[in-house]
Automatic annotation (TrEMBL):
InterPro entries recorded: Aldolase_TIM (IPR013785), FAD/NAD-bd_sf (IPR036188), FAD/NAD-binding_dom (IPR023753), NADH:flavin_oxidoreductase (IPR051793), OxRdtase_FMN_N (IPR001155)
Native organism taxonomy: Bacteria, Pseudomonadati, Thermodesulfobacteriota, Desulfobulbia, Desulfobulbales
Cofactor entry: FMN; [4Fe-4S] cluster
The name this protein goes by in its record: NADPH-dependent 2,4-dienoyl-CoA reductase
UniProt entry tagged with the keyword Metal-binding: yes
Keyword Flavoprotein appears in the UniProt entry: yes
Length: 674
């Protein structure tokens, strides 16, 4: 047994499917990237999936592909419904097979989630996250849709796919048939549970009959709906057994509908926080089961398998972050893995804003043909001033390309604003990004100079200079702001100051929300799975359909007030797919928001402000200023005076809400230009 199998004996054990074998227990889960609709998108997807296959993934599942127009996620999104579509898909399958990989096409019918006027559903019930009301499928329409699934699977095999995944979870069309909340039909496709699951069972059965035994059929089963009137546990088991009998090769786990108000993949979810759901189904079926959601590192994946929770593990975003995740784990190089931090900022937020996905910690993701890592033809001496996210990304990338790099950091530790961010509940994974960059600096022999500000004399001899000096908190011009009970956000997050039980936070942007979350946490320890489930109201016993229970309502740790000058919604700039999580957490913590205020003074009693014509006093122990940042320019003025050229990146270029996505992208892009 070789080293990787000794360390991860379950993760790297082959999986025999009878007619074919998977080389390990790792499935690259489905994720829409936006490349599906881009010009030349199939060439780019071929490179994207090909790199992941070369990285050693056992089985890849594509982003969702519609079987017909009604199943589109949005107008003109990707579908496979005609032989004329086969050629483009061949680019993908050939690229994966070239690297000895296997790939399945996910067939996804959006149902009432389709963002277009052609959308259909079992019943004409509008989704709360969609402005379009679906048309109810007729009996003939139901049968025609089943035929479209089968045709899509047949064309997928013609295109070279090793199988298909039938998307039956996350609240899409099949899930809508299964659950009574969205299926009000009175014909043979509605009413009793046996009738409601007839649709997915008939789809799987018909695909198996048409495609034969030697074709992988994965069924993505919603094991935990997390919506009212969702499936009970007995219904989940009954469906799983019916799907197995219909001919599924593998059953994958689906967690939560898109309209659910419980986090399922964000960083606030503990690692492998839903593996218990898959474990509960083990023994009820004999086909392999796949656990998913917030599995991002090899030790986590191995533990899920070793504890008997599943037969395989699924990861999607971790392969955006690092296409070589598998080979690094196999070689015992876990410290070199660029870990997915589950921030959603460059992947899901982009998709829901109709932009192509990429990755905050890996800006090359989905840009493999546009921004490959290319070794330099001319080695330069490069100086990077500032060891925050922008500087780390720039220094690591330049060194990986072959340049000789020196990184200057005025503080005694690398990390910049990430050193603060990792202390915030739900952002603990930022520590992994720092670990990754530190390892890259060591691997590529970057000279790191800590605890000293770079001077013009230090920089004269370099061919290229990047200033990534970061930001500092913006100081308010307000009477009383210099009083000892007034702190800036960095003083709190760095642990330098203690805070009382009553607090006013000036600023309701991302930093203000992070500060409130930090002050509301009961301890410095990351939440356990059980405490997370209790906090958000997930019932392991499935006492009610969908697995919903009552969220815990503990006494808030502090009395917190958040204030902003504008009258707009607090946290308007938060992430599209995670902002609601932050708002919900602060609401549970009893945070009071004050908008449209004018700050007047801070005195011994607290914060004085006006709202409209009324003057108010918040009697608080501390006032914390989270009112933005200003750029640190470092030696920019001296370099300009000496006519020494340099380039500025990250917060030093633009101080805007600690934008790590922009900072890392700029660092990589600048290093690529040298």
């Amino acid at each position: 047994m070789n080293g990787d199998q000794q360390r991860y004996p379950h993760l790297f054990r082959p999986l025999d499917l009878g007619f074919t074998e998977l080389k390990n227990r790792i499935l690259m889960g489905s994720m829409h990237t936006g490349l599906e609709e881009e010009r030349h998108g199939f060439k780019r997807m071929a490179r994207y999936y090909g790199e992941r296959a070369a990285g050693g993934v056992g089985l890849i599942v594509t982003g969702g592909v519609a079987p017909n127009r009604a199943g589109w996620i949005a107008p003109f999104s990707i579908r496979l419904a005609s032989p004329s579509h086969i050629g483009k898909h061949r680019l993908i399958t050939d690229a994966v097979h070239h690297h000895d990989g296997k790939i399945c096409l996910q067939i996804l019918h959006a149902g009432r989630y389709g963002y277009h006027p052609l959308c259909v559903a079992p019943s004409s019930i509008k989704a709360p996250i969609n402005r379009f009301r679906p048309r109810a499928l007729s009996r003939r329409g139901v049968k025609s849709t089943i035929d479209d699934f089968v045709r899509c699977a047949f064309l997928a095999r013609q295109a070279g796919y090793d199988g298909v995944e039938v998307m039956g979870s996350e609240g899409y069309l099949i899930n809508q048939f299964i659950v009574a909340r969205t299926n009000k039909r009175t014909d043979e496709w509605g009413g009793s549970f046996a009738n409601r699951i007839r649709f997915p069972v008939e789809i799987v059965k018909a695909i198996r009959n048409r495609l034969g035994e030697e074709f992988i059929i994965i069924y993505r089963l919603s094991m935990l709906d997390l919506v009212r009137d969702g499936s009970t546990w007995d219904e989940v088991v009954e469906l799983a057994q019916a799907i197995e009998k219909a001919g599924a090769t593998i059953i994958n786990t689906g967690i939560g509908w898109h309209e659910a108000r419980i986090p399922t993949i964000a960083t606030v979810v503990p690692r492998a926080g839903f593996a218990w759901v898959t474990e509960r189904l083990r023994g009820s079926v004999s086909v392999p089961l796949v656990a998913t959601n917030r599995i991002n590192m090899p030790d986590v994946a191995e533990r899920v398998l070793a504890q008997g929770c599943a037969d395989m593990v699924s990861m999607a975003r971790p392969f955006l972050a690092d296409p070589e995740w598998v080979v690094k784990a196999q070689a015992g190089r876990e410290d070199e893995i660029n870990t997915c931090i589950a921030c959603n900022q460059a992947c899901l937020d982009h998709i829901f804003s109709r932009r192509t996905a990429t990755c905050l910690v890996n800006p090359r993701a989905c840009r493999e043909t546009e921004a490959p890592l290319v070794k330099t033809a001319r080695v330069k001496r490069v100086a990077v001033v500032g060891g925050g996210p922008a500087g780390l990304a720039c220094a690591a990338t330049a060194a990986a390309r072959g340049h000789r790099v020196t990184l200057f950091e005025a503080r005694s530790e690398l990390g910049g604003q990430f050193l603060l961010a990792k202390a915030i509940p739900g952002k603990e994974e930022f520590a992994e990004t720092l670990r990754y960059f530190r390892r890259q600096l060591a691997l590529h022999q970057v000279e790191v100079v800590l605890g000293r500000r770079a001077t013009i004399d230090d920089l004269r001899a370099f061919d290229e200079i990047a200033l990534a000096c970061g930001v500092r908190p913006r100081k308010l011009e307000l009477p009383g702001v210099d009083q000892p009970q007034v702190f800036a956000y960095d003083q709190i997050l760095s642990g330098r100051c203690q805070v009382g039980s009553r607090v006013a936070i000036i600023g309701t942007g991302g930093i203000g929300f992070d500060m409130a979350a930090y002050l509301l946490q009961p301890s410095s320890l990351a939440p356990s799975v059980d405490s997370f489930l209790q906090e958000w109201g997930v019932d392991r016993t499935y006492g009610a359909g969908g697995g919903l229970g009552q969220p815990s309502r503990g006494k808030p740790v502090r009395e917190i007030h958040m204030l902003q000058r504008s009258a707009t919604k607090p946290g308007a700039g938060l992430g599209k797919t995670t902002g609601w999580i932050h708002r919900a957490a602060l609401k549970r913590g009893g945070v009071t928001f004050w908008t449209g205020v004018t700050y007047q003074e801070i005195n011994d009693r607290g914060l004085v402000f006006a709202q409209g014509k009324e003057q108010r006093l918040l009697e608080v122990d501390n006032v914390i200023v989270c009112a933005g940042q200003v750029s640190e320019h470092g030696p920019a003025e001296e370099l300009t005076a000496a006519a020494i050229s340099f380039q500025t990146i990250g917060g030093a270029l633009l101080a805007a809400e600690l934008d790590a996505k922009r900072a890392i992208f700029q660092g990589v892009s600048l290093a690529d230009s040298w």
